[in-house]
Design brief:
This protein is of the alpha/beta class. It has one domain (9-255): Rossmann fold (3-Layer(aba) Sandwich), CATH 3.40.50. It has helices spanning 9-12, 26-43, 62-67, 81-93, 130-140, 156-168, 188-197, 214-225, 231-237, and strands at 52-56, 73-78, 99-102, 115-121, 141-152, 201-210, 240-243, 249-255.
Length: 258
């Protein structure tokens, strides 16, 4: 029997998004620097306060706050109201104007052709209906708009690293059980098929992964478990980078034809 993904952790840990002692903070320090640069590069200089942005599965607002550094029109949606409350509070404290709404990725509460940029990172492997999510993203994108995504590949390597090491093996586990489940991971070919079916023009898909080799990763995980470093430091040390291999994760972008 396949395990069910535990998306309720984003309610249970909603106050922890910006906490250096929480595993959620790896997203800010370990992944967001790469994502921020990649999003900006994908827009190819078309960055201005007028760019209308949507972040799907925004959680505590890590990506949305970076989008708000260049755009005056940033929206974030999430199924976790508790996480949205954290996002709203953090944005207010940072003096950022972001429109957060409680909504599902399969039913976006926006009109057709609304956004110049849609981001959906570390989310696609959590949704109930991936095909419908891609269809909705295509619907709300303006012609010429950009969709940036990243997700986890369904491979033996991703099982060993994301499931067994991070969640299941007692000496190394640091993430909640079923924060991810392997059968919901998405191969690049599966995602490409759905993007093409929605007539989205795929510009690039690249592998991404931690900057340290597996042995060094284990070393830093043991230091994390021994509380010699916190999650913010762990993420900073092992920051993700672009690579040829898609054995664990990949990132990409596509556009809606004009």
């Amino acid at each position: 029997m396949k395990p069910e993904i535990n998306n309720d952790i984003y309610n249970q840990l909603a106050n922890d998004w910006w906490d250096p002692s929480s595993f959620l903070n790896i997203l800010e320090t370990g992944l967001q620097p790469l994502r921020e640069n990649y999003i900006r590069e994908s827009l190819k200089g078309a960055i201005s306060p007028e760019v209308k942005c949507l972040d799907i599965g925004c959680g505590g607002g890590i990506i949305t706050e970076d989008l708000a550094k260049f755009s005056d029109h940033v929206n974030g949606i999430d199924l976790s109201q508790a996480s949205l409350n954290t996002a709203k509070q953090h944005a207010q404290e940072a003096g950022l104007s972001i429109n957060y709404q409680h909504a599902a990725a399969e039913s976006l509460p926006f009109k057709d052709n609304t956004f110049d940029l849609v981001t959906c990172c570390d989310v696609l492997e959590h949704v109930d209906d991936l095909g419908l999510v891609i269809t909705e993203i295509n619907r709300v994108l303006k012609p010429g708009g950009t969709f940036v995504f990243d997700t986890i590949n369904r491979t033996l390597m991703s099982y060993l690293s994301v499931i067994w090491v991070a969640q299941d093996f007692p000496p190394t586990r640091f993430a909640p059980k079923n924060a991810h489940v392997w059968h919901k991971f998405i191969t690049p070919k599966e995602l490409q098929t759905l993007l093409l079916d929605s007539q989205l023009d795929i510009k690039e898909i690249q592998g991404m992964g931690p900057s340290k080799n597996p042995l060094m990763m284990l070393w830093y995980i043991f230091r994390l478990k021994q509380k010699k470093i916190d999650f913010a430091e762990f993420g900073d040390i092992t920051q993700f980078r672009l690579m040829q291999s898609m054995a664990i994760s990949y990132i990409g972008h596509c556009t809606k034809p004009r």
